[in-house]
Amino acid sequence: MFTAGFWKATTERALRTFAQSLAAVLVAGATTLLDVDWQAALATAGMATLLAVLTAVGAANIGGRGPGITETPTARKGQTTP
Questions:
Q1: Which stretch of 9-13, 41-45, 55-59 has the lowest confidence by average pLDDT?
Q2: Hey, is 11 helix, strand or coil?
Q3: Torsion-angle region of residue 37: left (phi > 0), alpha (psi -120 to 50) or beta?
Q4: Domain residues of the chain, as ranges?
Q5: I want to staple 49 with a disulfide (CB 3.0 to 4.6 A). Which of 18, 27, 31, 82 is the partner?
Q6: Spatial separation of the C-alpha atoms in residues 3 and 45, rounded to whole Å
Q7: Cα(43)–Cα(46) distance, rounded to whole angstroms?
Q8: In the chain, what are the helix, strand and coil shares in percent, each to the nearest 5?
């Protein structure tokens, strides 16, 4: 969590989440861009982005405690994974 690589990946993930959730809100409304409640759409996308960043921070392997949410454990020498 304390590396530039972590924050670069988290920023990319957050930007994708923002764009995807904003697009979903706009499409779900099925209206023209002039009729969109932009404040609500941007607030929804912002909340989704915040949750993506918090998920990344919560899943960070701080102190070598083990694999993160999306990682699979690796076997040590002489051990097998279940």
A1: 55-59
A2: helix
A3: beta
A4: 4-59
A5: 18
A6: 26
A7: 5
A8: 65, 0, 35
